[in-house]
């Protein structure tokens, strides 16, 4: 019997292929300059596939999504402008269009990472405290691998090329606030796409961490 591949799995397959060739292309010096400018497309595709598979287009979920995007973008914009929140850093040009020297797609990054990390933890527990703390820990752990790769690739740069400890504290604090907001809305998030996105992100940055840094 021939089993048909579901639409959900097709989208997930496309996303994983995009991450695989993106990782490979960036790791290979001769192709890096072609693949790096595709970074905003990768972020938008990740968000698109998340919503396609999650299949919740209710007004409540869309309002939550807009709020997460605005929170993520705002803390980044304030951070870039003042250097007070995360430390002194600035974005390069690879993320595309900027507002207040901050790429708009950075809000997209906060959005799908927040929802995905919540979706994974939500599968295992319904306890409020854990639904705030564990997703925030996941996101902060991911940032630990993101930072050296991001600096090496020119996504952003830190003053004196040193990532301050306050960056991770602020990542955790912002993530905790966002996940508290998510819990308030209590969405039911698809755990499958959540796991796929988080694993794709971890593999992408961990692989590049060892290949290019």
TrEMBL record:
<feature type="transmembrane region" description="Helical">
    <location>
        <begin position="128"/>
        <end position="146"/>
    </location>
</feature>
<feature type="transmembrane region" description="Helical">
    <location>
        <begin position="168"/>
        <end position="186"/>
    </location>
</feature>
<keyword id="KW-0472">Membrane</keyword>
<keyword id="KW-0812">Transmembrane</keyword>
<feature type="transmembrane region" description="Helical">
    <location>
        <begin position="103"/>
        <end position="121"/>
    </location>
</feature>
<feature type="transmembrane region" description="Helical">
    <location>
        <begin position="12"/>
        <end position="28"/>
    </location>
</feature>
<feature type="transmembrane region" description="Helical">
    <location>
        <begin position="63"/>
        <end position="91"/>
    </location>
</feature>
<dbReference type="Pfam" id="PF04240">
    <property type="entry name" value="Caroten_synth"/>
</dbReference>
<feature type="transmembrane region" description="Helical">
    <location>
        <begin position="193"/>
        <end position="212"/>
    </location>
</feature>
<feature type="transmembrane region" description="Helical">
    <location>
        <begin position="34"/>
        <end position="51"/>
    </location>
</feature>
<dbReference type="InterPro" id="IPR007354">
    <property type="entry name" value="CruF-like"/>
</dbReference>
<protein>
    <submittedName>
        <fullName>Putative membrane protein</fullName>
    </submittedName>
</protein>
<keyword id="KW-1133">Transmembrane helix</keyword>
């Amino acid at each position: 019997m021939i089993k048909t591949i579901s639409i959900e799995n097709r989208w997930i397959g496309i996303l994983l292929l995009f991450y695989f060739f993106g990782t490979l292309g960036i790791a290979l010096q001769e192709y890096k300059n072609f693949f790096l400018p595709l970074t905003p497309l990768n972020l938008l595709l990740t968000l698109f596939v998340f919503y396609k598979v999650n299949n919740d287009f209710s007004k409540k979920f869309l309002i939550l999504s807009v709020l997460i995007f605005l929170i993520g973008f705002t803390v980044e914009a304030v951070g870039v402008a003042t250097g007070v929140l995360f430390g002194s850093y600035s974005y390069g040009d690879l993320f595309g269009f900027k507002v207040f020297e901050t790429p708009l797609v950075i809000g997209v990054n906060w959005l799908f990472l927040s929802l995905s990390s919540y979706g994974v933890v939500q599968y295992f527990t319904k306890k409020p405290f854990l639904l705030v703390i564990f997703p925030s820990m996941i996101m902060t752990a991911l940032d630990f691998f993101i930072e050296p790769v991001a600096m090496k690739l020119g996504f952003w740069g830190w003053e004196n090329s040193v990532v301050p400890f306050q960056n991770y504290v602020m990542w955790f604090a912002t993530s905790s606030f966002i996940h508290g907001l998510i819990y308030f809305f209590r969405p039911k998030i698809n755990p499958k796409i959540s796991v796929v996105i988080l694993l794709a992100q971890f593999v992408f940055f961990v692989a590049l961490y060892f290949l290019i840094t």
